[in-house]
Amino acid sequence: SFNTNLTVIWSLNTERLLLKITSSMKAMLIELVCPTSSPIQPVIPETRRKPKLIWFDTGIVNYQAGIRKDIIGAKDILDVWRGRIAEQVVAQELLALSEKVGQRRAYWSRPNNGAEIDFIYLYDSRIIPIEVKNGTNAHLRSIQVFMDMSPEDIAIRIWSGNYSVDTVKTPSGKPFRLVNIPFYMIGCLNEILGKI
């Protein structure tokens, strides 16, 4: 029947896709970044929930998307991608900061309220939330939800704005330091955190 054939086709396509993803992961071209819902150590990836697909090379991402010509003449890469490439760039930079090649990135998510932090960064046995914003977007709802649950008092926003450290309060009144880091300073993240 039609449904049986469709199921067989779906199974074959899914199997091929999983094989391609697995091969790409082994070649270190992509990473599946799993969510976690706890803001404290240890970071336990929730592998049954939807992962993010992160490419290790933004050049390959641009090639696959077919936007090579658009990028060459762009004043700001965020304009071409409408901010979607920003998360890929940050993931690549976070990988470069890590001394542990096998260490996988994670993101934080609360499935019941839609709050999501793009990355959680392990620094000196602490979990630091990193939110990636295109442009100078000031929305902090997800960071505030995370910070209310976290024992930490530092959060990172990577954006197109200037570097600054602001004291911010969550809606419940918990104060924390929001470190605003421009994209070009991501490579200095460990030094910045060491001075705060």
- With strands numbered from the N-terminus, the spatial order across the biggest sheet is 2-1-3-4-5-6-8-7
Uncertain spans, ≥5 residues at pLDDT below 50?
1-10
Strand content: 25-35%
Question: What is the share of helical residues?
Answer: 25-40%
Number of strands: 8
Distance between the termini: 65 Å
Structural class: alpha/beta
**Main sheet overview:** 8 strands, mixed
Short description:
The protein is of the alpha/beta class and 196 residues long.
Features:
196 residues; alpha/beta; eight-stranded mixed sheet; 8 strands; 7 helices; globular; 37% helix
Layout of helices and strands, plus pairs?
Elements: H1 2-26, E1 30-36, E2 52-55, H2 58-65, H3 68-72, H4 77-81, H5 84-97, E3 106-110, E4 115-123, E5 126-132, H6 141-149, E6 154-159, E7 164-169, E8 175-182, H7 189-195
Parallel strand pairs: 1-3, 5-6, 6-8
Antiparallel strand pairs: 1-2, 3-4, 4-5, 7-8
